[in-house]
Specification:
Layout lengths: L1 H12 L3 H10 L2 H14 L3 H10 L6 H19 L5 H14 L5 H16 L11 H10 L4 E3 L2 E3 L1 H14 L7 H8 L6 H14 L8 H11 L5 H24 L13 H21 L1 H13 L6 H10 L3 H26 L2 H5 L7 H11 L5 H18 L20 H19 L4 H14 L6 H13 L1 H6 L1 H8 L7 H15 L3 H15 L4 H17 L24 H4 L2 H16 L6 H17 L4 H13 L18 E4 L2 E4 L3 H25 L6 H24 L18 H28 L3 H27 L14 H13 L3 H11 L2 H21 L10 H21 L6 H5 L5 H19 L4 H12 L7 H21 L7 H15 L7 H16 L5 H15 L6 H15 L22 H32 L1 H11 L4 H20 L8 H30 L6 H27 L8 H9 L2 H11 L1 H23 L19 H13 L7 H12 L2
């Protein structure tokens, strides 16, 4: 055999072509095969031998062509057998590739079929010979014609058949990567490529996880040919499924059978990380791929999953895509939250059971997954967190002021998005060490630089970071000290938040504490008032939190730090003596503030009480400071009146007068501190008889008590003249004397209030002492009446009643004593207060004022004002009392108060209750049931019922009260009280579950009231109908309700055609002549909400149709019925059209109501146009008949609504006096200024917009008619109504009259018409 091989090679190397051919002809096929096999196995001169065979086998002869084919047919399996050395196989394939183009068409076809068959049976395991296949297919595609079966095919067609056959067959999972690599070199049409990509993506599930990244890499290289979107979608959906499986395993880990081999989580995450790197690398090189990637997400936000979010965040590192990615994620987050809000607020949408994708959950899952070494995702994560917080953080209020008390639950989509940004950053901070420094730096930078807008969200995040990782923060203490340097320039709210947040760190870091104290001392002498206020805030916080050993344990003493890392014994690091010296030093710094502006002093007085409660060892210093300050303004001579010096309390600057000393607050602070110490003293002396510090304490206590007793006694003797504040005094704010008197009056009233509180507590329900309290009140009341009277006279009644200085706790105690204290021993004393009607009213109004402050800002003035738990306890007590007072004393008893045009006590109680329920929902959303059950617990100590029952118990009580109001005559009807009751019912009904029987009872009751109440009170009816709508949307779609209300409004206001008699409808008695316009506006706002939902559904269906054209077509054809969402849209729009058809025939008053109706009509046609466009899209993808319901809808719009719209436009522009024969209506429409209403119509452009909307609708209907081959325009009657139209009927009438009466006696109607024509735009 060696000799034969040598001969063949030598003949080939020489130029003996003929001899070579003859020699080869003499060899049998088997012999040639044996030669090739032998040569290849030995690896010697295989190339030379193959070249020789090709040289001696001319392709133009049939023998030569067959021999060449034989070589290919033998060598390919030989290379695949795995017996050859890699280099030998590579050389052979290389040679074969060079000669492929010489093969004839049939040979190529045969060879290609050989490859396909080998692949099908799995004989292409090593993939070495696959490199040849692309060359064969390329050569095959170039062939003109090939015989195929009985006919002929072009080479291109034949290649297509082969690829189809190949992609339809079963592939060996081990070869998928080889095949994908091979196809990169095959010229493919787009259709073939799609077929191939589908096949490879389907194979993902069958591959081992470790093989996915190399396959993805090959696919991404293949994407250069096209199908970029399909490849990316395939990769993302594969990992989306894996994540879902992983999540299910985590949820039901124990229950799952072990038959299915689960993928370890860390392995999956590492593979995902590698794939993300591959994709990002590919996008860097191929910008078209990047564009396709982002375009895919823009069309369907619903496809977000943790993997795709991670991919987006990694792509954001490429600069050209950064902005697009974050805008896209921001839009996805907001859309997700808005969708959730829309779904929660509509039973109609909930019934459709639409799947909901939560972008927030996906993003947080990505953050969690990133712990598996996804460093390429973390940077994007940080940027996204700050991007959301910057974009959706709280906005500055009017005049750049931060809106106060923005705390509470994140309710709106922007607030939720901002909160999500904070969660991303906090989780990222906890998990990834490399990004901690950057997050901290960026948060602190924003706290320092964003002085114009609120930074409460950043303060919250910073506080969470401190609590979660205090020790990590101490490593970055230099950044914190740098931030401290800016304290004096920051807004006060920021300083307070920042210092509260760093408290836990100050306890464990000496250097940080020293740095802060240094900064605060400098700030004490700042030229800016805010800087000095910041210093006071900081020092007070330090005093509260650095306890001197031996201080009494108070419920507020210890600041909760939920981290085990700061379990440091404060006293081991800073011993008691050091803490005491430190606190006394701070107190001496704070004493200097007592010579500064009123604002600074005020902060100090408000802070001392809290310091004392937490650090009772400082009592002596604090009380001595307050005593010496009080003595400056106290008149020691016992016979002199008044007992306080008011002149030193003010200061002049030029001709302006300012308050220098908030005297009432100073007295208030002193009183509260003194009372607390006395309570503590009583408690401790009962326990032990320790007398060490008693002498000193007794000294300042007795001094202060003497001062307060004397002040009370002399204040009772003092007349208003003694303060120069009698009725003849000037209180105008325009003059300096008036300003001074105003300041004096507020100070004196404040002192009266504080003394009332002190004396009430000291009185211990003693009658004579309580008479002193009422005497103090009568003086307070006299002064406040003078102030109200004087400010009422001046044009600018700027000063409302000043904030009461009674503490919230005392206000609560006071009303409890007045209304609920049944103790026999106190009866006599309390009767003094109860008999004083003005005092009782004052006590209730203070309670309402305190609750209002809590609702608006989250805290109240005075002691314990910042303490949320105590505030809630006071709320519970107040609710109990107010509820008892309202339900047990009927308002009939208070008829006297009605004549004085003041709200009754019952109304005050109701206002208080409404504010309590609102405050509780906003500030303590989880404690609403607790609030109601404490009320009930006081009523009867029976068994605790469930939340809904407790809630419904109170709802029934308020329902009874409202029913009583409505049962009387209209003269006795108290509108304000009824409105408050409706508002309370609205708040309480929010606590009911829409699925509960109580909710259904609530709706039934509300419908009944609306049907039976006929009072002509627009404000009350507005509240009642709003309640009805808010409940109804959570129960079922309000479409039917809207129709009934529209019929009622139509029958009440009459028809636009005066000759038309409207059928009397009376579904809801609450709609009458006076309330119909209000009802119409409410109905239109509800129509707007229904249209919002319909628009949302259509947009959602459009997205689905676009994302899976073929899938949806198959699904709908298979089902042979309309999609539930489409059906719902059609039915809702049908109901809206029917309701608007009633309203558009109604003689509405010109002005807002007419314009709102025109706008809603325009909006309805826009929505109809959107639906028509959707069906155009559907018909493009899937030719077929339109749903019958949709045709009915089009018919309804064309026959019922459009003609009526044009009539209404004519009516709205004419300004004619409409409304049937009813004189009252005529008079009403006459009163409305026609010129003004016509001008309003011109300015709003409502009519042109409506006409444009109708025409757009008809334009797209024509397009849809062509697409669907259904004549939809048969239902439409094209109108000639335009702004510049000629009213033919009016013209004929005018001409007729001119002929009949040539003389110049024109009737009123004739003279009116031309004027109106001038008015028309």
């Amino acid at each position: 055999m060696k000799g034969e091989m040598d001969k063949l090679v030598s003949l080939a190397e020489g130029d003996h072509i003929t001899e070579l051919q003859n020699y080869l002809s003499a060899l049998t096929d088997e012999k040639i095969k044996a030669l090739m096999t032998n040569s290849a196995l030995k690896g010697k001169r295989v190339g030379a031998m193959l070249k020789g065979i090709f040289k001696g086998s001319p392709s133009n002869s049939s023998e030569g062509a067959n021999r060449r084919l034989l070589v290919y047919e033998h060598c390919i399996p030989l290379c695949e057998s795995g017996d050859l050395q890699a280099e030998v196989a590579a050389d052979m394939i290389g040679l074969l590739m060079l000669e492929t183009h010489t093969l004839s068409g049939p040979s190529l076809a045969k060879l290609a079929s050989l490859f396909v068959d080998a692949i099908k049976v799995g004989k292409m395991g090593s993939g070495k010979s696959l490199e040849l296949f692309p060359t064969v297919l390329t050569a095959l595609a170039a062939c003109e014609a090939l015989t195929y079966g009985k006919g002929e095919l072009s080479g291109e067609e034949y290649k297509k058949q082969l690829i189809n056959s190949l992609c339809s067959s079963r592939w060996d999972p081990q070869c998928v990567i080889h095949f994908t690599t091979m196809f990169r070199d095959v010229p493919l049409s787009l259709e073939e490529l799609q077929f191939l990509v589908e096949k490879v993506v389907r194979m993902f599930a069958k591959l081992d996880l470790q093989e996915i990244p190399p396959l993805v890499y090959q696919l991404l290289l293949l994407s250069a040919k096209g199908c970029k979107r399909q490849i990316l979608d395939g990769i993302i959906s594969y990992f989306k499924e894996q994540d879902i499986h992983q999540e299910e395993e985590e949820k039901h880990g124990e229950n799952l059978d072990l038959e299915v081999q689960s993928i370890p989580q860390d392995q999956l995450r590492h593979v995902e990380g590698t794939v993300i790197l591959h994709v990002v690398f590919a996008i860097r090189l191929d910008h078209e791929l990047g564009r396709e990637f982002l375009k895919g997400f823009k069309t369907s936000y619903g496809d977000l999953c943790p993997f795709s979010v991670a991919l987006l965040l990694s792509v954001a590192r490429i600069q050209r895509y950064e902005e697009q990615v974050f805008d896209l994620l921001k839009a996805a987050v907001v859309k997700s939250f808005k969708d959730k809000q829309l779904l929660q607020g509509s039973k109609f949408l909930q019934d459709l059971q639409l799947g909901q994708c939560s972008a927030a959950k996906m993003i947080l899952d990505t953050v969690r997954n990133s712990v598996f070494g996804w460093d390429h995702v973390t940077q994007g994560m940080v940027q996204l967190g700050f991007f959301l917080m910057d974009a959706f953080g709280p906005k500055p209020g009017p005049f750049g002021k931060a809106s106060e008390g923005s705390g509470g639950v994140a309710r709106t989509p922007p607030q939720q998005a901002c909160k999500l940004g904070g969660q991303v950053l906090l989780q990222g901070f906890k998990m990834h060490e490399p990004i901690r420094g950057e997050i901290l730096e960026q948060v602190l930078n924003r706290l320092v630089t964003k002085t114009a807008s609120p930074v409460s969200h950043y303060l919250e995040l910073f506080s969470d970071i401190v609590i979660s990782a205090p020790m990590i923060l101490l490593e970055s203490s230099s950044k914190l000290t740098e931030t401290f340097d800016h304290l004096s320039h920051l807004p006060l709210a920021t300083v307070q938040g920042l210092l509260k947040a760093v408290q836990p760190l100050l306890k464990v870091s000496m250097s940080l504490k020293d740095a802060l104290i240094l900064v605060l001392r400098k700030a004490m002498f700042s030229s800016q008032l805010d800087g000095r206020k910041s210093a006071v805030t900081g020092f007070l916080l330090l005093l509260k939190n650095f306890k001197v050993l031996g201080s009494l344990a108070s419920s507020q003493c210890s600041q909760a730090i939920s981290s085990s890392q700061v379990q440091v014994d404060v006293h081991s690091r800073f011993n008691s003596a050091a803490n005491e010296a430190f606190c006394l030093e701070i107190l001496s710094s704070l004493r200097r503030c007592l010579g500064q502006q009123a604002d600074v002093r005020l902060m100090l007085y408000e802070g001392f009480y809290d310091v004392l409660r937490r650090n009772s060892q400082l009592a002596s210093s604090i009380m001595q400071t307050l005593l010496s300050q009080l003595r400056r303004y106290y008149e020691p001579e016992q016979d002199l009146l008044p007992p306080v010096k008011l002149e030193p309390c003010i200061t002049t600057h030029g001709d302006q007068i300012f308050l220098q000393e908030p005297l009432a607050h100073l007295v208030s602070c002193t009183v509260h501190c003194l009372l607390w110490l006395q309570n503590m003293h009583t408690a401790t002396t009962d326990d032990s008889g320790d007398d060490d510090d008693d002498e000193e304490e007794e000294g300042y206590r007795s001094d202060l008590q003497a001062i307060l007793e004397s002040t009370t006694r002399r204040m009772l003797k003092s007349e208003l003249e003694d303060f120069e504040l009698d009725k003849s005094a000037e209180f105008s704010l325009a003059s300096s004397v008036g300003v001074k008197n105003n300041i004096y009056a507020v100070l004196v009233m404040g002192v009266y209030e504080v003394l009332m509180e002190y004396n009430f507590i000291k009185a211990n329900y003693n009658k004579s002492h309580l008479e002193g309290v009422t005497e103090l009140f009568s003086r307070y009341h006299r002064l406040s009446e003078i102030l109200r009277e004087k400010s009422g006279k001046s044009r600018t009644s700027s000063n409302k009643t000043p904030r009461s200085l009674l503490s919230m706790g005392f206000a609560s105690t006071l009303i409890t004593a007045i209304f609920r204290d049944n103790a026999q021993s106190r009866e006599e004393g309390l009767s003094v207060l109860r008999s004083n009607g003005e005092f009782v009213r004052y006590a209730l109004s203070v309670v309402v004022q305190k609750i209002q402050q809590l609702e608006e800002t989250g805290h109240t003035d005075g002691p314990d004002g910042q303490n949320a738990d105590r505030a809630f306890r006071f709320l519970c007590d107040m609710t109990r009392v107010l509820m008892w007072r309202y339900t047990n004393i009927p308002s009939v008893v208070e008829e006297a108060g009605r004549k004085e045009r003041r709200c009754s006590l019952s109304q005050l109680c109701l206002e208080g209750l409404l504010r309590i329920f609102n405050a509780c929902q906003q500030r303590f959303p989880d404690k609403m049931t607790q609030l109601l059950s404490t009320m009930e617990a006081a009523e009867d100590d029976g068994e605790q019922e469930d939340a809904s029952e407790v809630n419904y118990f109170y709802i029934r009580q308020f329902q009874r009260a409202l029913f009583t109001q409505l049962s009387g005559s209209e003269e006795d009807f108290n509108s304000r009280e009824a409105q408050l009751l409706v508002s309370i019912l609205a708040v309480l009904s929010r606590q009911l579950q829409p699925t509960s029987k109580q909710f259904v009872q609530m709706i039934t009751w509300t419908v009944k009231i609306c049907k039976e109440t006929s009072f002509e009170d627009p404000t009350f009816s507005k509240g009642l109908l709003s309640l009805l709508f808010s409940l109804h949307v959570l129960y079922k779609s309000p479409a039917g309700l809207l129709l009934e209300l529209c019929q009622d409004i139509h029958s009440q206001l009459g028809d636009i055609d005066q000759d038309m008699e409207v059928e009397r409808q009376a579904h809801f008695a609450v709609v009458n002549m006076k309330t119909a316009t209000t009802a119409a506006l409410l109905v239109l706002s509800q129509v707007d909400k229904v249209l919002d939902e319909v628009d949302w559904l259509i947009a959602r269906r459009k997205g689905h149709t676009a994302s899976d054209k073929s899938g949806s077509a198959e699904a709908s054809q298979a089902a042979g019925q309309q999609d539930p969402a489409e059906k719902a849209v059609t039915l809702q729009l049908g109901s809206v059209l029917t309701a608007l058809n009633e309203l558009v025939q109604t003689a509405l008053l010109p002005g807002t109501c007419t314009i709102t109706l025109l706008r809603e009509l325009s909006r309805t046609y826009t929505t109809l146009t959107t639906l028509v466009k959707y069906y155009i899209q559907v018909c493009s993808n899937q030719p077929g008949a339109l749903p019958a319901r949709f045709e009915k809808l089009v018919k309804l719009s064309g026959s019922h609504l459009t003609p009526q719209c044009y009539s209404f436009i004519t009516y709205a522009q004419s300004g004619e006096i409409g409304g049937g024969s009813n004189e009252k209506k005529k008079k009403k429409r006459n009163e409305a200024n026609p010129a003004a209403s016509a001008k309003l119509l011109r300015e709003t452009k409502a009519i042109p917009n409506l006409i444009f909307s109708i025409e757009q609708y008809e334009k797209y209907l024509i397009m849809l008619s062509k697409k669907s081959k259904v004549n939809l325009m048969q239902y439409m009657k094209l109108s000639t109504s335009r702004d510049f139209r000629i009213n033919a009927a009016t013209l004929d009438a005018a001409l007729q009259e001119q002929e009949d009466a040539p003389e110049a006696e024109a009737s009123q109607e004739e003279t009116q018409e031309p004027k109106q024509k001038k008015r028309k735009p």
